[in-house]
Amino acid sequence: MRSTLLLLSTVMPPLFLSAPAIAGPQAAQGWYNERGYVEPAGDRIIACHGYGCTRRLALSVDGSLLNRASGVLRSAQGSPATERQALAEVIRSYTAYLAASLGGKPDVPGSPPQMSGVHGQMDCLDETANTTSLLLVLQEHGLLAHHVVEHPESRGFFFDGRYPHFTAVITEKQTGAEWAVDPWKKAPGQRPEILPLDRWRQDS
Fold this sequence. Notes:
With 204 residues, the chain is α+β, with helices and mostly antiparallel strands. The chain has one domain. The chain has helices spanning 25-35, 63-74, 80-102, 124-140, 197-202; strands at residues 3-6, 44-49, 55-60, 147-155, 165-172, 178-182, 193-196. The strands form two sheets. Strands 4-5-6-7 form a four-stranded antiparallel β-sheet. The chain has a three-stranded antiparallel β-sheet with strand order 1-3-2. A hairpin with a 5-residue loop joins β2 (44-49) and β3. α2 packs antiparallel against α3 (80-102). The longest helix is centred in the middle third of the chain and has 23 residues, at 80-102. Residues 1-22 have low confidence and may be disordered. Keywords: Signal.
């Protein structure tokens, strides 16, 4: 496993951004530009951590992880539902891989404020960037038969009593149904939440 620590200084963009004008992969990739993050290139991703992607690690998605993901996803192409179940398993392995790559204390679920800036700890923006990066890599390899990776979404605006929260998003190709892919409440190596985006938006 080869990883190179990037020493980058980042000027953080505004928290709230308008909805994308386009949908699909271009919108998903455009999200990185909106926030000043780095989109994946080939199998290379820039893993975000430290909260708000203030710390970054360049790494290649492990070949054995991709091989396992290929086997799991190709055997689950019978329906969108089975593909989402397979994606949950792939992301479970991916979050464990990220934790091992970053080192240090494994990420604490739910981004406690006292962990801000700590190496290896991730808030919802870090989780969203890292999950979307994996989804784009899988899509580039032709492993998503029933879904398209979309622009990440947010919920909560303080004034409605909810803290802002972000998630990766996929859309069913045939129906247009949108799904949140959110590992934020889960420890590394646990299956993420994958639920209808409308229901995710209603959660606190």
